[in-house]
Amino acid sequence: MRHVLGHFATGVTVVTGLAGDGDPVGFACQSFTSVSLDPPLVLFCADHAGRSWPRMRDTGTFCVNILRHAQQELVDRFGSRTGSRFEGLDWHLSAHGAPALPDVLARVHCAVENVHVSGDHDVVVGRVVDLELVQPGRPLLFYRGRFAVTERLRSSAQPEVTGGWDDFWG
């Protein structure tokens, strides 16, 4: 399954939140996507046995930090099963109650809307409460088991959307 699904490129994020005791927690996540524009909903999938999600699940808020191409170190830090993920990191607590990582492309601040148990993971649906474009740049991608970076995108005419977003994307 990993071999075939590895051919689908994904963006790379770090999902952060606070544990019940107030400690910052977070984990690297590739399974982030938009669900709905009205209401604004996103989702990610988190391992039941992970170090972070079980600790932040009941707090009700999280932040999805969308990583730039030069932030592989954050993936290494937040994807590791050992070490202190926030030690020595210049982060701040957002106005929405979740850790915000420095110099990311964007942040999506959410309140937990629903959690669906699916196999060995939770599918977490979040209601978007705020969006931040933090810094311009290219996204960090994951493709076929490795990190990848997009080349500069060529300027091209955008397809005309005559009806609405739903008409364009189906």
UniProtKB/TrEMBL annotation:
Family as reported in the entry's similarity comment: Belongs to the non-flavoprotein flavin reductase family.
InterPro entries in alphabetical order: Flavin_Rdtase-like_dom (IPR002563), NADH-dep_flavin_reductase (IPR050268), Split_barrel_FMN-bd (IPR012349)
Oxidoreductase among keywords: yes
Taxonomic classification: Bacteria, Bacillati, Actinomycetota, Actinomycetes, Micrococcales
Entry GO MF terms: FMN binding; riboflavin reductase (NADPH) activity
Key words, A-Z: Oxidoreductase
Stored Pfam families: Flavin_Reduct
Record domain Flavin reductase like: where: 5-149
Protein name: Flavin oxidoreductase
